[in-house]
């Protein structure tokens, strides 16, 4: 009885209404390429990791050169370095040939100074000279690193302001600090002498005065040559001499704490 009234009996698969029947399976248009993932890849998509690692960098037109080192790790510090890579010292802005040329210009201030000597200004040489100056004073019993850096910073800022007020061309602070740092080289020699000989005497006073004149003459000559203000050399030399005089005082005398 129940089977007669039940429209979904044993023969329900034959007597199912029209709305219960599954629609016809028609393939969608955007899957017409099948199940192959390469057939419906997005335009501009990147290759997979396996495909990228299987290829060679040298096959790409955007890359060239050999990244393999032709020597040991020390080749990065030389003039050649790695193939396709600039030397490490060049990336750091350190050029020993330029440092040597500027140092020789300071040691021989009577020669003609090229007005383009500071086109390639750097602070590698000045940092080395300041460090050697501080170490020499430390060995002579005068640990004045803080005073050296303070006087150097204040003097560089002051000279930068004065030179830009006096000249029409102007100069940047980087070159001012570079010139003052390179011209400290004679004072570094006096600091090395102070390790062996006490400069608190007649010989020390004469030696420090000579070093002040040497540093002042070299620095003012470079500033005048770069800024083309030869008629104002004495005005440039005066504040420069005061700056190197402060370094000379640090070399001769010891700064002690009087509060104790």
UniProtKB/TrEMBL annotation:
Pfam families: Yip1 (PF04893). InterPro entries: Yip1/4-like (IPR045231), Yip1_dom (IPR006977). The keyword Transcription regulation does not apply. It is a multi-pass membrane protein. One of its GO terms (cellular component) is Golgi membrane. It is found in: Golgi apparatus membrane; Membrane. Its main location: Golgi. The chain crosses the membrane at residues 123-141, 147-167, 179-199, 205-227, 234-255. GO terms for biological process: endoplasmic reticulum to Golgi vesicle-mediated transport; vesicle fusion with Golgi apparatus. Residues 51-61 have a biased composition (Polar residues). The keyword Disulfide bond does not apply. Residues 106-249 form the Yip1 domain. PANTHER family: GOLGI MEMBRANE PROTEIN YIP1, PROTEIN YIPF. Belongs to the YIP1 family. This is Protein YIP.
